[in-house]
Amino acid sequence: MSDYASRKSHNSRLPPEVNRILFVRNLPFTITAEELYTIFGKYGAIFQIRMGDKQKDTRGTAFVVYEDIYDAKSAVDHLSGFNVGGRYLIVLYYQPSKFEKRAQQEEKEQELLELRKRVRQHKSQVQQGQS
Fold first, then answer.
1. Distance (Å, rounded) from C-alpha 4 to C-alpha 129?
2. Which of left, alpha, beta for 84 (phi over 0: left; psi -120 to 50: alpha)?
3. DSSP letters of the chain?
4. Residue 20's pLDDT band (boundaries 50, 70, 90)?
5. What CA–CA distance (Å, rounded) separates 27 from 51?
6. pLDDT by residue (tens digit) across 48-60?
């Protein structure tokens, strides 16, 4: 029996949040993609790694996509809390619904800021007209 088949029969029921895409937080800002491949590649074949921008609020984060869901599970089990460059990794399964909710929240906050700005402008115009 192949390694994959034995793992599948042994772990036939995975939790619903388990998937091939991992979201990694708390990475050292100086880590390279090659170093990530070395660390995460120990647990299986990697399809893709996407690192956050160095200048934006996504720095220190990455998405790691495995070719096999069982390899992704193994990486989460072994690398959550792993110390890399003096920082402890936070390795989570990617959950699109959480990211969508966050994006919607940020959009609502931006809309609220714009409305407040309009109200302030309108109030100042009204006050200037009364003077």
1. 76
2. beta
3. --HHHHHHHHT----TT--SEEEEES--TT--HHHHHHHHGGGS-EEEEEEPPSSSTTTT-EEEEESSHHHHHHHHHHHTT-EETTEE-EEEE--HHHHHHHHHHHHHHHHHHHHHHHHHHHHHHHHHHH-
4. very high
5. 10
6. 999 988 778 888 9
Per-residue pLDDT, 121: 86
Quote the DSSP letter at residue 36: H
Residue position matching structure tokens 């089990």: 77
Amino acid at 44: G
Do residues 23 and 68 make contact, with C-beta atoms less than 8 angstroms apart? no
Predicted local distance difference test score (pLDDT) of residue 23? 94
Q: How far apart are CA 40 and CA 34, in angstroms?
A: 10
Considering the entire predicted model, what is its pTM? 0.67
In which residue are the tokens 């390279």 written? 32
In this structure, which amino acid lies at residue 69?
A: I
